[in-house]
Design goal:
The structure is a homodimer. The first copy, chain A, is α/β, with parallel strands linked by helices. The first copy, chain A, has 3 domains: about 45 residues, Orthogonal Bundle (434 Repressor (Amino-terminal Domain)), CATH 1.10.260; about 130 residues, Response regulator (Rossmann fold), CATH 3.40.50; about 130 residues, Response regulator (Rossmann fold). In chain A, about 45% of the residues lie in helices and about 20% in strands. Chain A has 14 helices and 13 strands. In chain A, the strands form 2 sheets. In chain A, strands 6, 7, 8, 9, 10, 11 and 13 form a 7-stranded mixed beta sheet that branches. A 6-stranded parallel beta sheet of chain A has the order 2-1-3-4-5-12, with helices on both faces. In chain A, helix 1 crosses helix 3, helix 8 packs parallel to helix 9 and helix 10 packs across helix 11. Chains A and B meet through helix 4, helix 8, helix 9, helix 13 and helix 14 of A and helix 4, helix 8, helix 9, helix 13 and helix 14 of B. The structure holds a DNA duplex.
Chain lengths: ~375, ~375
Amino acid sequence: MDRGKKPAGIKDVARALGISIATVDRAFHDRAGVNPKTRARVLAMAQKLNYRPNLAARNLKLNRRLSIAVYLPEQIHSFFTPLLEGVRSAADSVFGVEMDVEYRTYPRMGEGDLALLESIPDGRFDGVIFTPGDPAKSEPVINRLSRSGTAMVCVASDAPHSERMTAVSVDAYVSGALAAELLGHTIPRSGSVAMITGELHVLDHAEKLRGFAANLALLAPHLSLLPVVESHESPQEALRQTRNLLKRHPEIAGIYVSTANSLPVLRVLEEQQLLGKVQVLCTDLFPELIPLLEGGRILATLYQRPFAQGKTAFEILLRYLVERIRPERATRLAPHTVFRSNLPLFADRVRSKARVTSALEARGA
Amino acid sequence: MDRGKKPAGIKDVARALGISIATVDRAFHDRAGVNPKTRARVLAMAQKLNYRPNLAARNLKLNRRLSIAVYLPEQIHSFFTPLLEGVRSAADSVFGVEMDVEYRTYPRMGEGDLALLESIPDGRFDGVIFTPGDPAKSEPVINRLSRSGTAMVCVASDAPHSERMTAVSVDAYVSGALAAELLGHTIPRSGSVAMITGELHVLDHAEKLRGFAANLALLAPHLSLLPVVESHESPQEALRQTRNLLKRHPEIAGIYVSTANSLPVLRVLEEQQLLGKVQVLCTDLFPELIPLLEGGRILATLYQRPFAQGKTAFEILLRYLVERIRPERATRLAPHTVFRSNLPLFADRVRSKARVTSALEARGA
DNA sequence: GTAAATTTCGGGAACGTACCCGTTTTTAGG
DNA sequence: CCTAAAAACGGGTACGTTCCCGAAATTTAC
């Protein structure tokens, strides 16, 4: 069906003024070689006739191809797989823009990401979506590429002091704050709570701690915060530290695990028969967590919506590349609080774990 | 920047086989007049050369224009304004597809929506996004338009027994379930809770009740559910009913208001000095709710994410119109649980209330 | 005043695809 | 084996835009 009068094209404007198409084109694009008066007349007529450039024709003629790189870690699988799917989903639903997307992965954050970024020559890509492992060390590369005109988009993590164009992530402070408020609401009597995190020198984790501590004091004054436990994302370390924590504070009323690596902590709680007695808040969602939520063994998990992060990052990047609309310095998504009752809405996507392939791919769109 | 080798075009395939472009085109489109063997060779070569149709060229040649209607109520303002913004946002970020979008609004659900739909001639639009007021009464129009080839997309509400293509809304059952679980977690002692809804013959509200009742029994057996209160979306009725409720059950421990029209209920609670003592859960987010959440007077609100609903609905519709990808029968979004601590992430969008204009608009994209 | 330099403009090709129309090849029928 | 009909295929144009190149108009220089 193609009802609806088509808006005026460049040749309609030319005909209305009795001038050539070439001149109208020059006027529209502020190119040299057109009399200022003529230009004014053209613009006025364009306005009057409601001129709309036919983007299909423009793209065809210009034949511009966007070149985009997506470099992500494979670990943590349950997080970066859906994130990548989000990027793909957004990339797949682009029509009318020719582009090549190069997907690459590396084992885990901090292992090879820097080398991968550094291998990008100036001007090779129009945009790069990536997760900065060590923000400080990444800065030089990010700045170099940014200055060479490559739009750098951080996702899941951030390098705020670099010259990246924008960053998409979940608001970490709010995650921490939410955890504090939830524990405050669900632990009626006074008691003490603990936070188990990954590495505090990772910005996100530090932010979560800030949010947690501040809001615990504010919204749950009956709860006291024990010293933070850093697991350094190591299962052994997490096991040891958690056992230590529980030995020294057997009366603990709540635990907030602010990293997705929560399984070791949960195992210790399980073996000490504390699951269900201690209020536990986790981070992110993966298959092992589902039965625990369903059984009410843990209160909730703060889902960082990797799919939405990937999708959003790509949309923002594309919008900039096509329309030169500069995004905000950062986009902070709201985490989803997943309880037992709303779990079914999230569990489906998590259960179907697609594999991350390290292949080099390209697609047109 | 336009690095990246362009994929094979139709003429590359033709040249590789030593045949004409026209024949390749016929083969690709299953048109008559091509030898089956030739067709097979063409398809094989296309595969081998990684043929990708240039959508810009195709669109230019076909010159198809999509015609889309978006018919929404103005009331409830705080909900449908962002919903419309979501639609607009999605429509604005479409490149390479020429389309006309006709936005129209009517005062409130049930007032004029049916007439508006009925006024659409067969084949006038490729797709329609709308909110069915009375599902049963809307069915005939929806079916007529659907059969005539118009993709009908329900948003915010649904007409599940009609032949609409798909529907986008928040999962109402889960909303109710979530409310039950939250009250269960935050009310430690046994007590009774009430649900105040709009109209139970509206599918959404009935679903919320189902979810609430079922999960209250399951997850919060210490709470008993009082008879449901129907406010019929009338402020006077809501005031009267709420006063009545509180008089008969002064010991009430929690209230779940499952309609966005929660202000009358809150006013009664305020005047009886119960705000902060009774756990209150609301629905949706509007300016008046913000200070109440900030002050901890109400526990949380179940935000139905109108912006996301609008955006999603448009994306799904466009995807179908362009790529003929049929969506699921329905898309159920997860409501956001907005507490005091994560309120800032939502409050901004709510505070800036853009006006809904009833103008007829068109835009190219 | 004329020639040269400069500005302003128009003609026309090309981007990759779809499709009309005319030409060639194959098949059927006697 | 010839003819006619049908099937298979190729040439060429158009979609709306961009942009090169050359022509025309205008300004500048002497």
